[in-house]
Amino acid sequence: MLEVQNATVEVTWWDVLKATSFIIAAGTVSFYLGLELETQFIIASVRCVVQLSLMGLLLDDVLRVNNPWVVFFITMTFIFLGSYEVVFNRTKHTFAGIFPRIFGLLVISIFLIGITGTAVALRATPFWTPQKFIPIIGMLLGNTIGSITVAIDLCLGHISLHAPMLDARLAMGASRYEASRPLAIEAIQMALLPIIAQVSVMGLINIPGTMVGLLVAGAEIQDAVIYQQVLMFMITSSCTLGSILAVAACLWTILDRRHRLQLDRIQPNRAIVTITIVRLWTHYTAEWRQKSWSLTKRYTKLEQTDIELETRP
């Protein structure tokens, strides 16, 4: 049983504003090094503040309502938004009908691991207890969408890159499973590499976020350790199942039932988040970067080579 001692931690919006200096520092370094990441830092930071604030307002009421249908609705909303994020904002490659497939595989992996882990490992009665089920679903979903994004991009990218090899294998009589198996294995392995590395170094090099939150809230150390271990095993399982299903969905779409490679189904993805303001900001930051380089006599390798050629007699 997880017990939390009395502890008072007062953190205000002023503290959040002070923490923004870290983002500003990262954006400044990106600006002067020409990494072109400052726009992404700004977008991600604004989304973080807005989304967490809305979630706080929403969960404040939801966690007080002991209704399974409300919990189910919130869970499905999270999964829908996670599917939207993967399909329209994360992946570099896409294909027709990818959204319902991603939504379906997220429902399977998140619900299967979430319900089983909450009911069996954490022994929550009932399993849909809002205080436990909703935060766990959020953690599972956040990690799983990262893994399936990598799996989809690598799978579709490898298919495009190694299309002649796949055609040759299919022409020699290999099934679509046999022809694509090496590419699928590599995509799944790379997608799961971050979570495996995270589990491997946990407790030795870093203190995980859930454990930190419980300790800050005043929980017993042993309870926080056990709780974190259970969650990490659930996250690893969810990422694995989601990555396998994502790669399978890609292969079943690009390689049809007649074992033919339909390379024309792979299309480049364009993020919907890109709006006019973001484009203008990117344009202005690029101009500022060029001005700063000209004032400080900093040039790229290509520009420096051109200058040296022009100054030679």
From TrEMBL:
Q: Does the keyword Oxidoreductase apply?
A: no
Q: Name one GO cellular component term.
A: plasma membrane
- Does the record carry Transmembrane helix as a key word? yes
Which segments cross the bilayer?
A: 12-34, 70-87, 99-121, 133-156, 191-218, 230-255
Name the source's superkingdom.
Eukaryota
Keyword list (alphabetical) reads: Membrane, Transmembrane, Transmembrane helix
Q: Membrane topology type, per the record?
A: Multi-pass membrane protein
InterPro entries recorded:
UPF0014_fam (IPR005226)
What does the UniProt entry say about where the protein is found? Membrane
Indicate the family of this protein.
Belongs to the UPF0014 family.
Q: What is this protein called?
A: UPF0014-domain-containing protein
Organism, as annotated: Hesseltinella vesiculosa
